[in-house]
Design goal:
The complex is a heterodimer of chains A (115) and B (109). Chain A is mainly β. Chain A is built from no helices and 11 strands. In chain A, the strands form 2 sheets. In chain A, strands 2, 4, 5, 6, 9, 10 and 11 form a 7-stranded mixed β-sheet that branches. In chain A, strand 5 and strand 6 form a beta hairpin. The termini of chain A are far apart. With 109 residues, chain B is mostly beta strands. Chain B starts with a strand and ends with a strand. Chain B has no helices and 11 strands. The chains are: A mainly beta (115), B mainly beta (109). At the A-B interface, strand 4, strand 5 and strand 10 of A face strand 5 and strand 10 of B.
Chain lengths: 115, 109
């Protein structure tokens, strides 16, 4: 498996500001993903973070709102831009070590509250 | 687009009972079907992964099966214990897993 570290673990932000969440893995991984878990809900895939190229976004998520970087095989960032209270969620980084047939592993998440 | 459904949404059983959680998915072209456990306020713990070429996986008291043709997976928990109380999530897909809404399990002592 892999050790996945997310920073910050939680934050309280004012509306209209932006927050960048970092995800660091202790080994090189093939695939990295970002998920959102809204209060009382299940997980929703935001995007696949592609190394060295633009992320692949799911329906309903756009780059302007959730810019993602992945400069190498162990690190990715997700920015939540121009935040509103509706963005209050847990944001989770997930990795697949070797590709399509390997399990997903999750970080502990970033609990974001927007006031 | 892959859609994943889990039933029941909640389940309460007495300790010691065997139980089955159900997961269905719309797109049979999945690479993996994975079951997770989530405790309140905590992250996700991976329980079992079934690759598309497999039919079942077992770990201790847990057994998960996969039937791609019918778009179904089940998680069987034997001899349930209060410590099994949690939300169980299934996820399936390829190049990004889609999650069901989960089954909230309560095992009463």
């Amino acid at each position: 498996s892999a050790v996945i570290s997310q920073k910050p673990s939680r934050d309280i932000c004012q509306r209209g500001t932006s927050l960048t969440i970092q995800c660091q893995v202790d080994s090189q991984v093939t695939m990295m993903f970002w998920y959102r878990q809204q209060p009382g809900q299940s997980l929703t895939l935001i995007a696949t973070a592609n190394q060295g190229s633009e992320a692949t976004y799911e329906s309903g998520f756009v780059i302007d709102k959730f810019p993602i970087s992945r400069p190498n095989l162990t690190f990715s960032t997700l920015t939540v831009s121009n935040m509103s209270p509706e963005d209050s969620s847990i944001y989770l980084c997930s990795v697949s070590l070797t590709g399509n047939n390997s399990p997903l592993h999750f970080g502990n998440g970033t609990r974001l509250t927007v006031t | 687009k892959q859609e994943v459904t889990q039933i029941p949404a909640a389940l309460s059983v007495p300790e010691g009972e065997n139980l089955v959680l159900n997961c269905s998915f719309t797109d049979s072209a999945i690479y993996n079907l994975q079951w997770f456990r989530q405790d309140p306020g905590k992250g996700l713990t991976s329980l079992l992964l079934i690759q598309s070429s497999q039919r079942e996986q077992t770990s201790g008291r847990l057994n998960a099966s996969l039937d791609k043709s019918s778009g179904r997976s089940t998680l069987y928990i034997a001899a349930s214990q209060p410590g099994d109380s949690a939300t169980y999530l299934c996820a399936g897909g390829h190049r990004g897993m889609r999650f069901g809404a989960g089954t909230r399990l309560t095992v009463k002592p």
